Amino acid sequence: QVQLQESGPGLVKPSETLSLTCTVSGGPIGSAYWSWIRQPPGKGLEWVGNLYSNGGTRYNPSVRSGVTISGDTSKNQFSLKLRSVTAADTAVYYCAIFREWGDYREYNWFDPWGQGTLVTVSS
Amino acid sequence: DIQMTQSPSSLSASVGDRVTITCRASQKISDFLNWYQQKPGKPPKLLIYGSSRLQSGVPSKFSGSGSGTDFTLTINSLQPEDFATYYCQQSYNTPYTFGPGTTLEIK
Q1: Which residues of chain B carry a pLDDT beneath 70?
Q2: What residues of chain B lie within 8 A of the CB of A58, using their CB?
Q3: Distances (CA, A) of A93 to A21, A89, A102, B42
């Protein structure tokens, strides 16, 4: 069964770059789709972006910090970078598998999720 | 962006009760609606996808329905482990958006 684990610094200074890695075990990442989702403390969930098996990406325009999601199939990892972060980027960051289903792969959902990692943006 | 709302925002119920949570989308999304359960300090867990399709391994006490803009999640025979926060999420288009959550508390 595929498992995901987020890792990275728990504290980032404002205007700097937040970098997180998701390590996947139990299966290769090359044939799947991958997502980052975040949750500010005590608040709801916000989709950050997806990485597709062809290397394509899609990001949430509402995430004001510059977002890059990339993958390293040799390490079975994918990563998230948020540039020029502010206090509004303080959140628990989750990585997840983005599943598709249906005759036209029209249905999709996030499952499973990693345990999440709290990143605080503060000087 | 498609806005998702949920009602109620919180709900008190007793063990054994049946509860229903409502989710509404700001535009029609067919049946592209997922439900997640989240317990404190844990990641969300998928319960239902495609409005009414039960994820493998999820007890049949959970059921979902709806299409268009209005959706419901029903939980039968509440047990202590069901008290959690429930989120709906639209998968109709990007950016994928979640509802604000409904917290189910023990009465």
Answers
A1: none
A2: 94
A3: 10, 10, 28, 12
